[in-house]
User: What shape does this take?
Amino acid sequence: MATIKERPGGHHIGSSVDVDVSAFSHSRRTAKPNPSSSLKRGTGLGGTVAVPKITVNAGPDSPPSRKSKSPKRNPHSAFAPRANPPNTELRRFYERGDLPIQIDHGGVANRLAWKVEIQKLDFHHYLPIFFDGLREVEQPYAFVAEQAVLDMLEAGSHKVLPVIPQLIIPIKTALNTRQKEVIVKVLKILQALVNCDTQNGGGLIGQALVPYYRQILPVLNIFINNNENLGDGIDYSQRKRMNLGELISETLEQLEIHGGEDAFINIKYLVPTYQSVVIY
Assistant: This one.
């Protein structure tokens, strides 16, 4: 597999920005300042990441006239998808044949056939690998990652709690891609994660996630109002659980219910518009 230098979930939208090598050396050549190269009224990016479309003026140095519209800045750069290079650990292990799974192509739906009993697996090794593959959008890697995580949470819920610190960075990286299908997948996995030990383990996984809210919740705060306004139309994404705003609200409610007494104040700190659903 070719070396990919692009960092997943980076802050740059689109292609990566070249690094100025002279910025890291002691000697640096600086150009003579030119008075005509300074910013003029109505120009500049205004702190945004995306480059706006600049209108053509009468002259090269003349400022835009009052009748012409100023360059529009991208107001939705926070919602723009980030880089998501195909360099996950799941892809590397799957292509090497190091995972004890194979896809069972059934008549109705596919499922995973495990070559080893899930209870006998080393969760510290395999579970972070499958969580890292949650940001995959290409098949069969996307299906393998999601289904393997669900199978391991269902069959080995008592072995998940010690692995929680290793799952935070893959979850954060997947959310930082800001791709809708990836965020929806991670939210469903988070709900399954906090509910997998509620019967046998007393819900300790939800409490173990509270210290890591600062890594998980900022992206949820960005998309919490991402609801479709269809008027009197039918939103079929509700049945398919693809409505991002509703899914984020459900996930925050599950985190508060199973997170203990400190969950709400930490959620409220990072998602100010969230309202509690727990009656004390």
The longest helix spans residues 180-195. The beta strands are 101-104, 111-114. The mean pLDDT is 79.
